[in-house]
Amino acid sequence: xxxxxxxxxxxxxxxxxxxxxxxxxxxxxxxxxxxxxxxxxxxxxxxxxxxxxxxxxxxxxxxxxxxxxxxxxxxxxxxxxxxxxxxxxxxxxxxxxxxxxxxxxxxxxxxxxxxxxxxxxxxxxxxxxxxxxxxxxxxxxxxxxxxxxxxxxxxxxxxxxxxxxxxxxxxxxxxxxxxxxxxxxxxxxxxxxxxxxxxxxxxxxxxxxxx
Length: 211
Description:
The chain is built from five helices and four strands.
């Protein structure tokens, strides 16, 4: 959600600057509207093209039922993007690039951004989060997106591929006497994330905050 908000704000600022630059070059307002609408619709259409390429790309190991659901999801997203591009294109000529209208346009965009973020947060909270299992990376990511991961352990390590793995347990979770059978040595705070197990004495660890 943070990235979505960042991109939306950048897009709004770029749109306003483009309107101002076109006005400074005496480009008629209607033509400026058409140019901006074309850019926006083209961007959405480009995203739709990328989504279409995912058709038939479901992992074979997940089975036929998963593949069917995957392709149906691709089709649904593709259709939604086309509808968005159509709406953007239909608005060409309907916005003014005049200086007096820019503030109104900015306020409208910010209102739409807030509404989009509310819908996205609701989707993560009502659809994504309930499908994750406790103490998994997927659940941690969902909680981070909602800004509710403050109570989770922040200890991390780096695997053999160079990927950073962050503990999925609660902060202050470990019992020093509860040593995993896969490791030797005296534990000093064991952490888990999927199949990865490590302790605070590991060279790549980042100690979690005390609670």
